[in-house]
């Protein structure tokens, strides 16, 4: 007695959809990396400290840049203290421990940095850190 083979034919692996998805993922990560990198590449010369760290970011961290002329930039947009408060208040309500990093230029008056800290605290942001860099070793 001869039995018939009822196995389905082998399925071919479709590579085109997999390549499309990989290319889309690659584009997504490259673009998101560029946006996060552009927040810290402004002309802000952060102060130096012996214990300065390499620029690493916490997940979801908001970077507030204070330029030498005292202007404030968040996500590439110039804001004043009122707009900064309007931007931070809803974020602080949604995320209780929202990290914020202040990148103040070394030539900014300390009073301006205190105003930004005060605005952050009035908005409900308490997890504030300051960007510093290590001094360049002299030869």
Total DSSP E strands: 5
Spatial gap, N to C terminus: 91 Å
Output the structural class.
Answer: alpha/beta
Q: Helix amount, in percent?
A: 25-40%
The biggest beta sheet is recorded as:
5 strands, mixed
CATH hierarchy, class of the domain at 38-130: Alpha Beta
Rg from alpha-carbon coordinates: 24 Å
Average residue-wise pLDDT:
82
Number of distinct helices: 3
| DSSP strand content | 15-25%
Instruction: Point out poorly predicted stretches.
Output: none
Q: SSE order in H/E notation? A: HEEEHEHE
CATH topology descriptor of the domain at 38-130:
Nucleotidyltransferase, domain 5
Q: How do the strands line up in the largest sheet?
A: 3-2-1-4-5
CATH architecture call of the domain at 38-130 = 2-Layer Sandwich
Overall geometry: elongated
The oligomerization state is: single chain
List keywords for this structure.
139 residues, alpha/beta, Nucleotidyltransferase, domain 5, 3 helices, 37% helix, elongated
Helices and strands in order, then pairings?
Layout: H1 15-38, E1 62-66, E2 72-74, E3 77-79, H2 81-94, E4 99-104, H3 110-123, E5 127-130
Helix pairs in contact: 2-3
